[in-house]
């Protein structure tokens, strides 16, 4: 793992050491204040270069292109909301997806399956443990966004999202987010609509560098990635862990997200 991530700077393998506990507390503080934390330069440059070379080849030949219209909830309808409510306005998201079973020897898989990585994330999130998905497609995805392509406004369904940026585009591809729009107790549909119609300038922007791990609480924070500009793709890995073992997507979900089922 020393050839994949910077364990001197980020002692994920020593979370019970003073340095490990200090890192966990810093990440917890960032998460409480900003709804996210970042480990800049976690993946080492040589490992990034190999992963990008491998995935670039797959994007050209075997990636699944997922183009879809959706609302901010990623739901066909929301109970209690009329179909024409402005909170349900439609956006388009386009990305190209590589699944875990297409990169079985990748450094990304080694990191995903490395027990200290999940243990570190669980410690920061103050959870007893985190488990890998059993799903051979969804457990780890690599997403590519080309010129004009974007991940549009949405709320996440999961409590947190774990991503690792592998390549930033020449321009665009910025991570934008807006906190305080809703809570578990108050969906604030009118406030969401007002933001989508008139308030997007109030969103915060973050431009990440390749090698940065980002862990983000997106369940109640609206967020998007702006359209990519230029020829260089935005490439990002998404790691999926759950608080229980054995999680798998249904066949319908696999086909919807990846164009195939296993």
Q: What distinguishing features does this structure have?
A:
four-stranded antiparallel β-sheet; Jelly Rolls; 15 strands; about 25% strand; about 260 residues; globular; about 25% helix; single chain; seven-stranded antiparallel β-sheet; alpha+beta
Q: What is the H-and-E element order?
A: HEHEEHHEEEEEEHEEEEEEH
Question: What is the correct CATH architecture?
Answer: Sandwich
CATH topology: Jelly Rolls
Q: Tell me the structural class.
A: alpha+beta
β-sheet strand percentage:
25-35%
Largest sheet: 7 strands, antiparallel
What is the total number of structural domains?
A: 1
The rounded distance between the terminal residues' Cα atoms is 30 Å
Helix content: 25-40%
Q: How many DSSP E strands?
A: 15
Instruction: Report the uncertain regions.
Output: none
Number of helices: 6
Strand order of the largest sheet: 1-11-7-14-5-3-2
What is the radius of gyration computed over CA atoms, rounded to a whole number of angstroms?
Answer: 18 Å
CATH class wording? Mainly Beta
Mean pLDDT: 95
- The CATH homologous superfamily is named q2cbj1_9rhob like domain
Q: Give the overall form.
A: globular
């Amino acid at each position: 793992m020393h050839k994949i991530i910077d364990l001197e700077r980020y002692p994920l393998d020593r979370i019970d050491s003073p340095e490990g506990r200090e890192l966990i507390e810093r990440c917890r503080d960032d998460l409480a204040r900003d709804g996210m934390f970042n480990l800049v330069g976690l993946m080492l440059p040589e490992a990034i270069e190999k992963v990008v070379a491998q995935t670039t080849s797959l994007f050209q030949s075997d990636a699944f292109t997922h183009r879809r219209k959706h609302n901010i909830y990623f739901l066909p309808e929301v109970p209690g909301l009329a179909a024409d409510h402005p909170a349900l306005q439609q956006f388009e998201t386009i990305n190209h997806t590589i699944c875990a079973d297409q990169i079985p020897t990748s450094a990304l898989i080694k990191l995903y399956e490395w027990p200290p990585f999940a243990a570190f994330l669980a410690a920061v999130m103050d959870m007893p443990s985190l488990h890998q998905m059993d799903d051979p497609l969804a457990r780890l995805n690599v997403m590519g966004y080309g010129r004009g392509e974007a991940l549009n406004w949405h709320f996440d369904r999961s409590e947190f999202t774990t991503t690792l940026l592998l390549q930033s585009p020449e321009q665009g591809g910025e991570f934008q987010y807006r906190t305080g729009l809703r809570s578990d107790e108050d969906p604030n549909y009118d406030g969401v609509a007002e933001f989508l119609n008139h308030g997007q300038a109030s969103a915060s922007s973050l431009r990440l560098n390749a090698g940065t791990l980002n862990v983000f609480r997106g369940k109640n924070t609206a967020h998007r990635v702006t359209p990519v500009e230029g020829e260089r793709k935005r490439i990002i890995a998404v790691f999926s862990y759950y608080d229980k073992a054995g999680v798998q997507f249904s066949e319908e979900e696999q086909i919807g997200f990846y164009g195939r089922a296993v």
